[in-house]
Each structure stands twice: as structure tokens, then as C-alpha cells.
Amino acid sequence: MLCSLWTSWPWILLVPGFAMGWTKQSSSAQTDIRNCSMVPPFLPPTVTATSTQLNALRQLMQSYNISAYIVPATDAHMSEYIAKRDERLAWISGFTGSAGTGVVTLKNAALWTDSRYWTQAERQMDCNWELQKTFWTDAIGEWILQEIPVGENIGLDPFLFSIALWQDYGLILQNSNRTLVPIEDNLVDLVWGTQRPPAPTGKIYLLPDAFTGSTWQEKVSDIRSQMKQHPRSPTAVLLAALEETAWLFNLRGDDIPYNPVFYSYTLLTASDISLFVDRNRLTAEALQSLSAACPGPLCVQVEDYDQVQAKVRAFTQGDVLVWIGKEYTTYGLYGVIPQDKLVESIYSPVMMTKAVKNTKEQELLRAAHVRDAVAVIQFLLWLEKNVPKGSVDEFSGARHVDKLRREQEHCQGPSFETISASGFNAALAHYSPSNISSRKLTVGEMYLSDSGGQYLDGTTDITRTVHWGEPTPFQKEAYTRVLMGNIDLAKLVFPAKTSGRMVEAFARRALWAVGLNYGHGTGHGIGNFLSVHEWPVGFQSNNVPLTKGMFTSIEPGYYWDGEFGIRIEDVALVVEAQTKYSAGEQAYLTFEVVSLVPYDRNLIDISFMSEEQIQYLNTYYQTIRQRVGPELQRRRLEEEYEWLWKHTQPFSQGTLLAASLSSLAATSLVAALLPDSQT
Ligand SMILES: *[C@@H]1O[C@H](CO)[C@@H](O)[C@H](O)[C@H]1NC(C)=O
Ligand SMILES: *[C@@H]1O[C@H](CO)[C@@H](O)[C@H](O)[C@H]1NC(C)=O
Ligand SMILES: *[C@@H]1O[C@H](CO)[C@@H](O)[C@H](O)[C@H]1NC(C)=O
Ligand SMILES: *[C@@H]1O[C@H](CO)[C@@H](O)[C@H](O)[C@H]1NC(C)=O
């Protein structure tokens, strides 16, 4: 799922010209339909009235003696997806996009967001809010300096800003005679009051052993030994990201939509473990597992979630060294630890360890992808039958694929909001249909479906683009080149510890060759029943080097604004490659694609493809048959089984024959190629 790849600022920061170019193109067609100079203003019906909450916030700001208040779109754990009760920016501004920053002064209010969200922001915000079409912190700072006179204060909640972002604001305001004031009471929450959605109360449960890579005790011991081996021998690790704690203790909850995590922090030392969480929400079984070895070094003390700051402050009075990952720790928490007691790395050792899946975790993720392929194949077949009848729209399509996934064993729901986009809607980067605005699927247009599931054994994410009628030659070429990029990266052999950033151009090469490109990242890590975007794995500049055992998506695309959009996304495991020579100390690496759904034959023009690419595709199709075929048979999904067979016929080099081979001939051809196949 690409949505948040645009949100991954560092990638855009590296390629600003490119990203901005893309941005202009897609925004030029849109203009603000609000007219704030009319009396009364002209506003679309989708805006939220914000005068009441802004007035209340401004009164509060005056009593706190601040002239501006900054409202970000994240939570205290730097989560990508947030719970309703953390949607402060949406509540104060009306804007519900996942990335943005609001600044409220005593007179004005402005919202900064990136191009994905400009149209949405103009349709959601009333005239109290001006839209700033950029996301750079510098631009926000400049605006603040213009609006706020010398000598006045700018307030923010230190628990909602990463260390780096806080420091950026500090730098901008340095020597400007304005002061950045940390205010621990969140002013939006104070205004929101009893209207604010309550803290979640859902159960926090233990993931059954069958679905975990190792016991939580083994994971704790591993992190402890990493502490010992660290040159500075930190005495504690402080975990702030929600997926870190969930992974470490093999616990899951449902505090945040699409992400099975729960509000928590962890402080781990050589002799103690403190888990900061609402104790009442732990199941009896979870509590029992955490406290089975009490007292002792494998005894988990459950402490109040709200106590983390006080506990860390008290703990750091002693002779200790606390290891934190800067990317996910807020300035608020960081600030309570004296500077000389900090060991900082970009990511915590838990984040780094979680990124590399062990053999069992790899097997679990592979298994989840087989069941996920069944759901997607059922969906593609259903579309083939129903789109020509004119009975499917984007919204009903999205609901149907979600439903098919939920019917699979171990499925707990979708892993993100399904993207289901027909025709020109697919050219919008971040398009999810609603029941109000939903385009009908037709045989005359391309359709893009990007969806994923949360299964107890793994998180999935796959994109397929299809056309049921007659695609134009350009559509076929663009699709084929996107596919070639996907294949070129997936079959690449590269040295161990190569950074994803260094190889991602392979996914673009076939597009670049003809002057085409796409304006988003090429992939992201993915979890075992955790986040669909699992950093720090992927192809962006801020991602860690690729290592055996990591999973990443590979998702090139092509988007023609106002016309159509193409994306082909698979999840792949980094594995050792078989190379002719082995000169280096470490084996070279390559990818094993674990998503198992064929591409759309109707959009493939193999005359663009090399022999190796075709060979690769045929081998991949054999794998799909071998792995998904038996599952379809086991489930007695006869029609789907036939569909799979038809859609995984091997392509033969340089001929149009493949397309016209009868399925009988194709079947026997495969039987010949594949002595142990299921034929
Ligand atoms: C807004 O409305 C005013 C007053 O009717 C009009 O003069 C102006 O052109 C409108 N602006 C836009 C951008 O439509
Ligand atoms: C408000 O803040 C300004 C700037 O820091 C300070 O000079 C002033 O004394 C403060 N006023 C109150 C009432 O605290
Ligand atoms: C900040 O205040 C100091 C002392 O009042 C003054 O000398 C300086 O010029 C001011 N700087 C700015 C940027 O206003
Ligand atoms: C559209 O969805 C919203 C929210 O899910 C729901 O309240 C509303 O009834 C739906 N409208 C229609 C026409 O289905």
C-alpha cells in the first residue's frame, strides 16, 4: 500500500525536484472551491465548522500566555495510523488527512500538508483555515515568525513531537526572540473535553505460540545481550513505538484502526522489565504469562501507562544509561532523561531485531500470503464476472475484497483502508472510495486494487491493476514496463548490506527508458500481524541496509493524471542468492516474492520484455500454481482453480502464440515443464 510512502518525508526530501514536479502536475487541475471573500463565504457541504473550538482554544492560549499553538497529526508514539482520540488536528481544523500540521494564532489558523491532500483539505476546512501547500518545517517556521511579534511565545505539546522535529523548530526560532514553550497539558484535549473519544478498553491478549517467532522471554534475553554487547553498555532500553512493545511481549490489542497494537511503553533493564499499560485490559492469560516468573529478571511489572514519565525520571536519577531510538521517542520523554544518561540510536534495538524475521516468522508470513492469494483470486474472478454486468462500483468492490479476506482462516480484518480506484481515480495517489463518491467499474477502464489483510500469522499488502476490455497500446506498454520494473528489482542479485535506496532504480529502469516514472517510493517493510508499513525496511534513503530475513514490498507504478493509474505490488523476502562465484565473505542476496497472484495477461505485451524477464515470470507462475493450487483444491474452489490455471499459463518468448494457446495445450505444456506439478 503506497499511501504513506508519500508521507515518508525523507524520501521526498532527497528528490524534491522530482516529487514537486509530480505534485504540480496533479494539483494544477484543482482549485479551491471555497470562496471566503463572499458574505457569507461559499463553502462545500463537506466542511466542518471550527469557530467554536478555535475560540475556546484561543482563550486557553491567552491564559497560557502563548500567541501560537502547533497541532501535529500524530500521537505520543509517533504512530502512522492514529486512534480517534488522537485526531486532534482533524477535530480542530476539519481536515482528516493522515499528514499535516496546524498552527493556530490568536487571529489566524493555517494548515500545512502535501499535495496528496490539498483538494481534500479545501473541501474539509472552513474559512477560519488557510491552506499552505507545502509541508516543510522551514515554511511553517517562517509563517510563525511573520505572524508572531518579537517577545511572544509559541506553545506545543512535547509529547506529540519527535526529537528531530522539536529541534528543527528550535533552530528556526533560535535568536528570533520568540520562545518555544513546551506545554504538557494538551490544549486541544482541554478544549475537546468530554467530547473527546474515551481511552480504548479492548482486551490486550497474548498471541498464541503457533503465531510467534519466539517466546517473549527469548526476545527479552536477546535484547539484553545486545545491551551488553553495545560499546557503551546501556543499562536500560526505553521503547516508545507501539509495535515495539507489542512485538517484544507477543501481545496484541486493537487501539488503532488496522494496526493490532495498544497504548504502551516499555522500560527494560538487565534485571527488571516495566510494561506501562492499562493493567485491567490485559487478559488473565496475558497477565499470567507476564508474571509467571515473578520475582526475577523475567518478571514483567505492569505499571500505569500514565506513570511512564515519572518512572523514567526517577529511574534516571540513578547511575544508569538509557538506550532510545530517536525516530519514535517524543521530545517530551527524551526531555526527562539527563543528556549524559542517554544512548541514542536512530532505531531501538527492538525495531532493528523485529525487522529481520527468523525462519518461523518467515514461514508464518509465507503461509498468510497463500490464504491472502486465495482471497485476491476470488476477488479477481468475481470482478471478471460482475464488472461486465455493470453491478460493481469502487466502494462495493472494496467491501467485497475486504469480505473475502475476512472469510480466510486467521484473518482479523484489513491491514489498511482498501484502495479501489477505477479510471482516472487511480491516478490519484491516495484514493479510497466512499459510499457517496464511488465510480462504477467498467470494461472500458483500468481498475487498481490495493489491499491487505491482518492475519494472526502475518500482514499482507498487494496491488493488482486490471483491464477487462481493450486497453490502449499505451496502457499495455505502461503496464508492461511497470511489471518489468517489478521483475527487474525482484530478480536482482546484490551484495549483502546493500541499501534499498541503491537498488530501487531497477524498478524504474524500464519506465525511465521511455521517459516515464512514478512519484512515490518503491517499497516498505511489513510485519507479522503488526504494521503494514514496518519501518525501517524499504527502499527509501532513511531505510536500513537489506539483510537476509527482511520482508519488503516492491511496488512500482505509473500514473497519468486525469486518465489512469497503474501499480503492481508484491511482498518479497530477502534471501541468499545462488551465485556463480562467491568472492565476498557474505552471500549475495536476492528476493523471493511471497505474494502469489498472477498479473493481468490482458495488459501484458511481452514483446517489450526480455527473455530473462519472461523466464522469471514463467517461474513465478509455476510457484503460484504449486503453492496456491493445492489450497484452492483443498477449499474446493473449482472455478478459482481453473481461473488460476488459465491466468498462469506460461508465456513463450517473442510470440503472440502464448495468448492464443488453448488452455488444454497450456496445461500440458506446464505439465511437461513441471514434472511434479498438480496437473
Ligand atoms: C468570490 O466571490 C466574490 C464575490 O462574489 C467574487 O468577486 C470572486 O471572484 C470570487 N472568487 C472566486 C475565486 O471565485
Ligand atoms: C508572557 O510571556 C512574555 C514573554 O515570555 C513575558 O514577558 C510575560 O511576562 C508573560 N506574561 C505573563 C502574564 O506571564
Ligand atoms: C532580540 O532582542 C535583543 C535584546 O532585546 C535585541 O538586541 C535583538 O536585536 C533582538 N533580535 C531580534 C531578531 O529581534
Ligand atoms: C455511508 O456511510 C456512512 C458511514 O459509514 C453511513 O453512515 C451512511 O449511512 C452511508 N450512506 C449510504 C447511502 O449508504
From TrEMBL:
Gene3D superfamilies: Creatinase/methionine aminopeptidase superfamily (3.90.230.10), Creatinase/prolidase N-terminal domain (3.40.350.10)
Residue stretches making up the Peptidase M24 domain: 363-575
Catalyses which reaction(s): Release of any N-terminal amino acid, including proline, that is linked to proline, even from a dipeptide or tripeptide
Peptidase M24 C-terminal domain ranges (all copies): 588-651
EC class name: hydrolase
Signal peptide: 1-21
Key word Glycosyltransferase present: no
Keywords: Aminopeptidase, Cell membrane, Glycoprotein, GPI-anchor, Hydrolase, Lipoprotein, Membrane, Metal-binding, Protease, Signal, Zinc
Membrane-protein topology: Lipid-anchor; GPI-anchor
GO biological process, one term: proteolysis
Cofactor(s) it depends on: Zn(2+)
Annotated localization: Cell membrane
Any single GO CC term annotated in Swiss-Prot or TrEMBL for this entry: plasma membrane
Classification via SUPFAM superfamilies: Creatinase/aminopeptidase, Creatinase/prolidase N-terminal domain
EC number: 3.4.11.9
Record InterPro entries: Creatin/AminoP/Spt16_N, Creatinase/aminopeptidase-like, Creatinase_N, Pept_M24, Pept_M24B, Peptidase_M24_C, X-Pro_aminopeptidase_P
Origin: domain of life: Eukaryota
Creatinase N-terminal domain: residues covered: 54-184
Main location: membrane
Described function: Membrane-bound metalloprotease which catalyzes the removal of a penultimate prolyl residue from the N-termini of peptides, such as Arg-Pro-Pro. May play a role in the metabolism of the vasodilator bradykinin.
Family recorded in the similarity comment: Belongs to the peptidase M24B family.
Protein name, per record: Xaa-Pro aminopeptidase 2
